[in-house]
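User: My collaborator sent over this chain with a note saying "see what the structure looks like." That's all I know about it. Can you take a look?
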Amino acid sequence: MDRVSLAFGRAPKSVDSPLRRAVLEGYVDFLDEHVDTHEGASHCWQGEKSFLTDSPYLKFEGEADVTMLHSIVGGFAEWGVPLPLCEMLPAGKQVLHLDLEVKGEKSLDILKSSPLTEGIAHAVFNLFNNQKDPIDCALYTCEGPYSSQGRLIFPSLVVSQATASRVRATAIQWLSSAIAEGGDNFDHRMLRMKKSLSDQSEDNTWACVLKAGQENPRIVFGADAELGPALKPQGAIQRYSITQSGLFCQTPLTAQLSSEQWVKFGSLRAGDRAASPFDADLLASDLPRRRTGPGGSPARSSAASPVIVPGRTVEQAWEMLGRMWRMDGDKLTNGRTGSSQATVADIEGGVVVAGDPAVVSAVRAVLLINP
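Assistant: Without extra context I'll predict from the sequence alone. Here is the result:
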């Protein structure tokens, strides 16, 4: 068996000429040359495939190497042999992305629907759009036997893991407010969307649909038995902006991207792309004060990451926290000074707590410990 077939178990069906086989062998050589240790790796093989090497870890540095990697991943996907690769996210900054999962027979149709992705993008836009610059976003999806998964990627927003968690919590809060009839942020489309989600599975709560991030997420177009189906781009890149009249606007971009370009757009490693069009890092550090509530109004909580406590209500919080803090509506205030320290708000499936970091941590502990 030749080296290419040994590396993959089989050669791609469309590689039917000596020239194409030579290109493929060159790709295998390139990947083998970038084997590294776990400590310095940027990517890793999923499962047992490691291209004839003892280590599953790879390291790509510099624009030329990264561009070559994107070309290889896109090429193998077009040949029908997706590479089982995962990106190893650094401890520092990463491209903002939100992983999604919808359960049920019609999960892929729901995942691809405009109201769901538009609602999430609207929440992200409100958080980061200090300079009113457009924000681009793409949805990648894959369909499994019992559920479908997706990933929303915002390549111009580079954030820390802590900020990414805050964005997820705030997006869940925004979606919850969009289905609250009579609220400033109410949207009939989102209410119908939530009903469709619930009809498919009772597990399709906002907190379950917006999954927590993974340490080593699969690379776009990457798949095998362990990863499941490959993540593929769904539709066009969407550009979100504010019109001159102040309305939120969604515009699909008509540019046709190659597989290599889709891989590059979907890369989550901040060092693998050009600088952001505006300073997302600065906005991320300023996020607590910029966070908006329903209808775009300034949120009343400040200074700390919102924390979601599942299975609780504001009424239960009143009962559990009454001895420690005074509650005025959704505000927790210091019983002696009367100063506001945190807010507790109902969301679907639980409550979200935000405010002074020490208070948020203490409130979360009380709500989780008490039966």
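A starting point for your reply to your collaborator: The CA atoms of residues 48 and 165 lie 31 Å apart.
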